[in-house]
Write a structure and sequence with these properties.
112 residues; 4-stranded mixed β-sheet; two-stranded antiparallel ribbon; 2 helices; 19% strand
Length: 112
Protein backbone atom coordinates (compact mmCIF):
# COMPACT_ATOMS: atom_id res chain seq x y z
CA UNK A 1 0.00 0.00 0.00
CA UNK A 2 2.94 2.37 0.49
CA UNK A 3 5.22 1.32 -2.35
CA UNK A 4 7.92 0.65 0.25
CA UNK A 5 9.21 -2.78 1.28
CA UNK A 6 6.91 -4.14 4.04
CA UNK A 7 9.75 -4.65 6.53
CA UNK A 8 10.73 -0.97 6.16
CA UNK A 9 7.24 0.20 7.16
CA UNK A 10 6.82 -2.19 10.10
CA UNK A 11 4.90 -5.04 8.44
CA UNK A 12 6.57 -8.36 9.21
CA UNK A 13 3.66 -10.79 9.56
CA UNK A 14 -0.15 -10.98 9.75
CA UNK A 15 -0.43 -11.79 13.47
CA UNK A 16 0.38 -10.17 16.83
CA UNK A 17 0.02 -6.64 15.40
CA UNK A 18 2.94 -7.23 13.06
CA UNK A 19 0.66 -6.29 10.15
CA UNK A 20 0.42 -2.65 11.27
CA UNK A 21 2.02 -0.32 8.75
CA UNK A 22 3.57 2.76 10.33
CA UNK A 23 0.97 5.52 10.48
CA UNK A 24 3.57 8.11 9.48
CA UNK A 25 3.88 6.40 6.06
CA UNK A 26 1.50 7.60 3.39
CA UNK A 27 -0.38 4.95 1.47
CA UNK A 28 -0.77 5.11 -2.30
CA UNK A 29 -4.47 5.74 -1.61
CA UNK A 30 -3.59 8.86 0.41
CA UNK A 31 -1.35 10.12 -2.39
CA UNK A 32 -4.05 9.51 -5.00
CA UNK A 33 -6.76 11.04 -2.80
CA UNK A 34 -4.61 14.17 -2.38
CA UNK A 35 -4.37 14.31 -6.19
CA UNK A 36 -8.18 14.37 -6.45
CA UNK A 37 -9.08 10.72 -6.98
CA UNK A 38 -11.96 8.95 -5.23
CA UNK A 39 -10.92 5.52 -4.01
CA UNK A 40 -12.52 2.36 -2.70
CA UNK A 41 -11.30 -1.01 -1.49
CA UNK A 42 -13.51 -4.09 -1.55
CA UNK A 43 -12.44 -7.48 -0.16
CA UNK A 44 -9.42 -8.15 2.03
CA UNK A 45 -7.43 -5.72 4.15
CA UNK A 46 -4.52 -7.05 6.16
CA UNK A 47 -3.00 -3.85 7.57
CA UNK A 48 -4.80 -3.65 10.91
CA UNK A 49 -8.28 -3.80 12.43
CA UNK A 50 -8.05 -0.83 14.78
CA UNK A 51 -9.42 2.62 13.90
CA UNK A 52 -6.27 4.44 12.79
CA UNK A 53 -5.24 1.54 10.56
CA UNK A 54 -8.55 0.93 8.76
CA UNK A 55 -8.72 1.71 5.03
CA UNK A 56 -11.18 4.59 5.52
CA UNK A 57 -8.48 6.17 7.72
CA UNK A 58 -5.69 5.45 5.21
CA UNK A 59 -6.95 7.28 2.11
CA UNK A 60 -9.91 5.24 0.90
CA UNK A 61 -13.24 7.04 0.58
CA UNK A 62 -15.17 3.81 0.87
CA UNK A 63 -14.26 0.37 2.10
CA UNK A 64 -16.11 -2.92 2.24
CA UNK A 65 -13.81 -5.49 3.80
CA UNK A 66 -13.66 -8.64 5.88
CA UNK A 67 -13.50 -7.24 9.39
CA UNK A 68 -11.42 -9.10 11.93
CA UNK A 69 -11.57 -12.47 10.19
CA UNK A 70 -14.31 -14.85 9.19
CA UNK A 71 -14.81 -16.54 12.55
CA UNK A 72 -14.26 -13.57 14.87
CA UNK A 73 -15.63 -10.03 14.88
CA UNK A 74 -14.62 -7.76 17.74
CA UNK A 75 -14.03 -10.80 19.96
CA UNK A 76 -17.41 -12.38 19.16
CA UNK A 77 -17.51 -15.83 17.61
CA UNK A 78 -19.57 -15.86 14.41
CA UNK A 79 -20.76 -18.74 12.27
CA UNK A 80 -17.38 -19.02 10.55
CA UNK A 81 -19.14 -19.04 7.20
CA UNK A 82 -18.45 -16.92 4.15
CA UNK A 83 -22.22 -16.61 3.66
CA UNK A 84 -24.37 -13.89 5.27
CA UNK A 85 -21.35 -12.39 6.98
CA UNK A 86 -20.87 -9.29 9.01
CA UNK A 87 -18.61 -7.15 6.83
CA UNK A 88 -16.99 -3.84 7.76
CA UNK A 89 -18.36 -1.03 5.57
CA UNK A 90 -16.30 2.13 6.02
CA UNK A 91 -15.64 1.30 9.66
CA UNK A 92 -19.03 -0.08 10.72
CA UNK A 93 -20.11 -3.71 10.73
CA UNK A 94 -23.09 -4.52 8.51
CA UNK A 95 -24.93 -7.80 8.01
CA UNK A 96 -24.77 -8.98 4.40
CA UNK A 97 -26.76 -11.53 2.44
CA UNK A 98 -25.10 -14.11 0.25
CA UNK A 99 -21.55 -15.24 -0.43
CA UNK A 100 -19.02 -12.56 0.56
CA UNK A 101 -17.28 -12.44 -2.83
CA UNK A 102 -20.63 -11.86 -4.50
CA UNK A 103 -21.37 -9.07 -2.00
CA UNK A 104 -18.07 -7.36 -2.85
CA UNK A 105 -18.62 -7.78 -6.60
CA UNK A 106 -22.18 -6.46 -6.45
CA UNK A 107 -21.01 -3.40 -4.52
CA UNK A 108 -18.23 -2.63 -6.99
CA UNK A 109 -20.43 -3.10 -10.06
CA UNK A 110 -23.19 -1.03 -8.47
CA UNK A 111 -20.73 1.84 -7.90
CA UNK A 112 -19.46 1.91 -11.49
Amino acid sequence: MSGVDPFKVGVTHRIFHRELMELKRKTMAEVMRDAGYTLGIFGKWHLGDSAPCQPHNRGFDESLIHGGGVAWISGIRTSGSYFDMFIRHSGKFVQTNGFCTDVFFTKVVGEM
